[in-house]
Amino acid sequence: MDLEEFLSENGIPPSQSSHDLSSHQPSLQQAPVTPPSVIDLSSRASTSLLPGLVPQNCMHSPVRPSQILPGNRNTPSPIDPETIQVAVRYEPDPADLALSSIPGEEMFDPRKRKFSDEELKPQPMIKKARKVFIPEDLKQDEKYWARRKKNNMAAKRSRDARRLKENQIAIRASFLEKENSALRLEVADLRKELGKCKNILSKYEARHGPA
Q: Which positions, given as ranges, span the membrane (predicted)?
């Protein structure tokens, strides 16, 4: 069938069809397709995508701990030994504490009370003085009895102070024995843990080299 016959059968004038075909013809033309550009990556294969983050010799030489850790690390501040509290289960007898405390003052605490080297020195044995015969006329003197009473009171205060210090030293020594046992157990545990750490460190140094 000819084109003109087809147009006449459908009632389309030939002039309009030619105009429509000419008006739509430019839109049917396809845009020129540009071929994709090929990038040569052969020159970039040896370069890293993120320079500065991964060194080129990272796969050849092992990284040591001294290269990872910062050199200016803050060292911990020293600990005052006097501030360390040791967990000790020690409950002294209240009667012993009463005998070791000064009446009217704070109760004696064996955890805080410390003695100097002079106080812990052995004391010599004091021999009892011989009795001195006192004449009868002197016994009737009031000054003699006043001096004797004063001397007896001073001797009693001295004996009480010495007995008080001996009781305090005994309770303090008992507490230190308990504390010493607790510290020995703690030192044994710390040495065991230190041995494990040294073993781990020696295996690491044997594998990766000294730090």
A: none
Contact 100, 165 (CB under 8 A): no
- pTM exceeds 0.70 for this model: no
Per-residue pLDDT tens over the stretch 103-118: 888 889 888 888 888 8
DSSP string for residues in 73-94? PPPPPPPPGGG----------H
174-177-179 Cα angle (round to 5): 110
Query: What's the Cα-to-Cα distance from 160 to each of 59, 99, 102, 153, 156, rounded to whole Å?
Result: 81, 10, 10, 10, 6
Which residue, 126, 144, 128, is CA-closest to 136? 144
pLDDT in tens, 118-128: 888 887 877 77
